Amino acid sequence: MSALDYSNDPKRGPHPLIVRKDAPYNAEPDITDLVKNYITPEEYFFCRNHGPLPDITESKHLIEIQGIGIENPTHISLKDIKENYEKSSVMMVMQCAGNRRDGLHKVKHTKGVIWGPGALGNAVYSGCRLRDVLATVGVTTKIKNLSKLHVAFESVEQCEEDKCYGSSIPLSKALDEFGDVLLAYEMNYSTLTRDHGFPIRVVVPGYIGGRSVKYLKSITIQDYESMSYYQRRDYKILPENVLDEDSANNYWCKVPSIGEYNVQSYVCNPADGMHEAAIANQKVQGYALSGGGRSIQRVDVSGDDGKTWTTAQLYQPAAEGDNCRVWGWCLWTATIPTKRNVRIVSRAVDSSGNVQQEYPVWNYRGVMNNSWRTVDPHTIEMSNI
Amino acid sequence: MSALDYSNDPKRGPHPLIVRKDAPYNAEPDITDLVKNYITPEEYFFCRNHGPLPDITESKHLIEIQGIGIENPTHISLKDIKENYEKSSVMMVMQCAGNRRDGLHKVKHTKGVIWGPGALGNAVYSGCRLRDVLATVGVTTKIKNLSKLHVAFESVEQCEEDKCYGSSIPLSKALDEFGDVLLAYEMNYSTLTRDHGFPIRVVVPGYIGGRSVKYLKSITIQDYESMSYYQRRDYKILPENVLDEDSANNYWCKVPSIGEYNVQSYVCNPADGMHEAAIANQKVQGYALSGGGRSIQRVDVSGDDGKTWTTAQLYQPAAEGDNCRVWGWCLWTATIPTKRNVRIVSRAVDSSGNVQQEYPVWNYRGVMNNSWRTVDPHTIEMSNI
């Protein structure tokens, strides 16, 4: 693979994101900033790239649409998308599958950008519905063998691991009347920036961010998942016994790719959840979310290593909206007593009764970490520190 | 409430179910029987009743349909349902929210029938789609304020706690093209028996059994959940601090009712997962499932108290079917070394990356227990026994 050229990446002045990797640019906010707003402003929104940022001229950009069930493959322009399709908005969490990878990396070496707990944000995306676009090329839920079909997306983004970024989702998710999958050209009511996929990206609510392909250049209906590296050899929860690249090679094809993410929460303020002194009435803030449109029904917070728990106050306007599923996150607060040098932890329960497990279940790619305990890097033992 | 008369309940000869309560009749199979078949035969299918079994004459039975969006309330007969609507089948798990309540009851007193791990089964139900019936009275996804509407069901069943059994689901679940909600008149290709709701019942795939109302007598579209005891004061995950009926009274209205169930698995063979001697190659069998159409991606099995885990072989034909969601369960087998007097445990991961938590999170109604550890009743401490 030829070396990638990052010279045309946007110049970045001083800004509040913590850079996890320079090239490609990967950065996340400080978590105390993250929970300041229910809708995450772009300045506090994590950036995840797999290569140099494309610099696309909107008026010249076309998206190719082809594959099973499409008699006449076509190209669609941004003008067409903006003028001829109903504009729709969805408020949703964008969360990287590697959010909180650092927690698993402390257990054992993982592969990937070592994200902290800030690789997510809650935004309003606007654009046209993917199902509306597919309907105009004749693809509807009446298509034969729907349960076996996928929609594959390719990106203009040149990448480190593959010729371009690519991914797919089940066609049924794309066509689901309550699935809210968009081809988005706005984020938080402004034109997408290059960091977030200008001029157009897919947004797949309730799924890991890796499926929301940026800089979209093609849409293909096919009877297999995307052949992309990012679908086939990445973003999978490998079993605990897979420790390295060699043994992973025997497992990629046996393990399903991740779609929906799991139930999650984190203490964001105080930032490290730690104190040198016990505090009787510590105000604690954090986030909680779950995949697939599931809302949060409860968050428990503990200042004494999980012995006792206090029920948090939830702020979750996404659950009161007009969407039939809940794609936005939940911010929560609690006031609890804390102990000296004991980390405050939170434990969320989603609307399906799923609970965050106590200890991390390690996996080589370090994805979907949602345990409420973390590992003390000094002792490399499970602990509440 | 007047005393209920159980004299017309079916006479029950010797049969393989373990009776948890006589009147109303509540019984579950031995778990080694339960995993003998992928499709659970009726003889091994748990029975959950809230009162005397109705004895309905099919030819005289009508279902009332009324409420928001229905200009002309109507009654529909079984003949109409069978002759004028397309017959559809769904293979799905029916699981009581109280399955494995015994595990929580050992932690602290819970309210309800003390079910073991056999209050579930995997069946093929056949009938007409609820959405087809609703379409004929003018209720479709075009209805105003869909996200705020519910379908309430009432049963002919007279109950201990309310005038009749009743429950509701979000209207969007009923209308969801991929939701597979049926008005079923067959189970495993035979006419429903009285135990399972003859002549007609609702089946709501991916939801707790309590929403699949038997002996259906009315369907109402309304802008609030069912007012029934079973929706409002039962089948909710109360916080851990709610210890009794009095404190529960302050919480019922604050806690959401359960819809989808959570990720679950259990070791069924050997039955108690215990041995008096260590065995090098113990064959272990069990079940795994998750709610909301999520499949099982992995089951880990441990014979050494969770120190090491072996990946089980999964048998999950439901995931290969024509449905876009997975409603059937997963049976699994593993061969592992076991230790003397150490209980074998299993831990499932569903397609959304949710994992069973290690320790039970107790709740007063003893619902949705999916921990992989249980409590040793002799020591009343958490343990792997």
UniProtKB/TrEMBL annotation, chains A, B:
Cofactors, names only: Mo-molybdopterin
UniProt GO molecular function: heme binding; molybdenum ion binding; molybdopterin cofactor binding; sulfite oxidase activity
InterPro entries: Ig_E-set, MoCF_OxRdtse_dimer, Mopterin_OxRdtase_euk, OxRdtase_Mopterin-bd_dom, OxRdtase_Mopterin-bd_sf
Keywords: Metal-binding, Molybdenum, Oxidoreductase
Residues in the signal sequence: none
Keyword presence, Oxidoreductase: yes
One Gene Ontology term, aspect cellular component: mitochondrion
Pfam family, one: Oxidored_molyb
Domain named Oxidoreductase molybdopterin-binding: residues: 50-230
Gene Ontology process terms (BP): sulfur compound metabolic process
Domain Moybdenum cofactor oxidoreductase dimerisation: 257-375
Region span, Disordered: 1-20
Name under which the protein is recorded: Sulfite oxidase
